[in-house]
């Protein structure tokens, strides 16, 4: 089992969060530092540290996170215009909380590529 994070405290209602969805497998709540007009984190209640820890036993949870994201996007009116639904992994992916979470970002056009590198020849 990986180390506990702040998200366990949110799951256990030990610290507050603006919860927008909950079921037996997942919880979705507003990001404390939103990067889009609508920025929700969808997390499994079971602690999975990173995408590297996804396996045949728990991969159904990842599908469920995307099903929840799609449901929320539809409910909040973002399905047609579109949105970003991403999971960051480890340092280069920009992960800061080691309890896997899906970012659902919506309400404005997203840029691509997701970063701009001033050095040449990295890709
Ligand atoms: P990561 O960088 O790991 O992909 O994303 C972690 C996200 O969790 C960040 O967007 C950050 O703003 C959010 N976050 C960190 N701590 C808290 C918290 O205590 N409450 C909420 N609602 N969001 C948090």
Describe the structure.
By secondary structure, the protein is an alpha+beta fold. The longest helix is centred in the middle third of the chain and has 17 residues, at about 60-75. About 20% of the residues lie in helices and about 20% in strands. The model has no long low-confidence stretch (mean pLDDT about 95). It has one domain (about 5-120): HIT-like (HIT family, subunit A). A five-stranded antiparallel β-sheet has the order 1-2-3-5-4, with helices on one face. Strand 2 (about 25-30) and strand 3 (about 40-45) form a beta hairpin. The protein is built from three helices and five strands, in the order H-E-E-E-H-E-H-E. This is Purine nucleoside phosphoramidase. InterPro entries: Histidine_triad_CS, Histidine_triad_HIT, HIT-like, HIT-like_sf. GO terms for molecular function: hydrolase activity.
In short:
It contains 3 helices and 5 strands; from the N terminus they run H-E-E-E-H-E-H-E.
CATH superfamily, please? HIT-like
Ligand names? guanosine-5'-monophosphate
The total tally of domains equals 1
Averaged pLDDT = 95
> How far apart are the termini?
35 Å
SSE pattern, N- to C-terminal: HEEEHEHE
Instruction: Tally the beta strands.
Output: 5
Strand line-up across the major sheet: 1-2-3-5-4
> How big is the Rg?
15 Å
| Helical content class | 10-25%
Overall shape: globular
Looking at CATH, which topology would you report?
Answer: HIT family, subunit A
Strand content is: 15-25%
Count up the helices.
Answer: 3
Supply the CATH architecture: 2-Layer Sandwich
Domain HIT: 6-115
Active site: 101
Protein name: Purine nucleoside phosphoramidase
Keywords: Hydrolase
